[in-house]
Every structure is written in C-alpha cells, then in structure tokens.
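TL;DR need structure tokens for one chain.
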Amino acid sequence: MHLIFNGIFLVASLRWGDWRNWREYHSTILFLWFGDLLYNFICHDYIMWEYKETIFAENLLSSHTIISLLIMFVAYPSTVLIYLSKFPKGIYKGIIWIIFWVTLYSLIEYINLQFLNLVSHQNGWTIGWSVGFNFILFPMLWFHYKKPVLALLTSIPIILFFVLYFHVPIL
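>> reply
TL;DR here they are.
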C-alpha cells in the first residue's frame, strides 16, 4: 500500500510540481529529509511512530527504515515541489493552503493508522500529536524556503521540546 500512496504522490508531482525549477526547492527538500533522518536516528530505539507494510509488497517493504526511505525519496520531494510551487499569495490563501496540506497528511495517517494498519504509534504519540506536528511542519517548510537559516535555528527549540516532552533517551 505504501507503494500506491507514494505512486500517487509521484504522479501528482509530475502533474502539479514545478520540476523545471527543482533546484529552487532542493534545499527545502534536504531540510525535510534532514528532519526525518534526525527523527529516525534519535528515536531509533524509542520510536514515536513506525511504518509497516501489511497489505502487499511486504517482502520489498520489510521494515520501518525501508518504508521511511521510500517516503523520503518519493513523497517528500513530491510534496515540496507541489506545496511550495503552488503556495498562494496573500495571508488568508496561504493559511488555507497550509490547512489543506495539514489535512491531507493527517487524513492519510489516520487512514493508515485506523483502517490499513500501515503505521503504529508508541511512547505517547497519537494522531493528535501528528496533526499538531503537521501544523508545525508545513509552515516550517515555507519558512525554510524563504529564510533557511532562521528556519534551521527555529527548529532547534522545536526538536528540544519534542525530545524533552516525550522523554526521548538521547544519551
């Protein structure tokens, strides 16, 4: 099923993503990758969420790490190419655009969690935390696109909050 979800993101990005100017979005894609890699490193032994494949391609997508890499290399660049290239002018339209993406990502996770058993939550993480995190993620992607150094600096206290709040053992 993860192959289908990622295939949909790829097709959508081919249709609506700004592939001609991919270099313009490259650093924000790397910012998103870095955040996910950091989560996977810090939380390797204390996961908040875990991807699994339960419908088909279980042999190909046999671990959280492989599925996470698939998402990083397909869904994340596809998302950034569409999200940033189509980001509307005007504060209200921008807020609606952010809410659309938060809703999309949250709905996909909810379906994967409740109906398809493609993700599980542990150590206090819930769908509510995922929705809240998405409300941080999507503005941060736009912020990084506009002000990369400030976005990186702003990420530090956000990361520290999650590590401290969820008691992630990092030492």
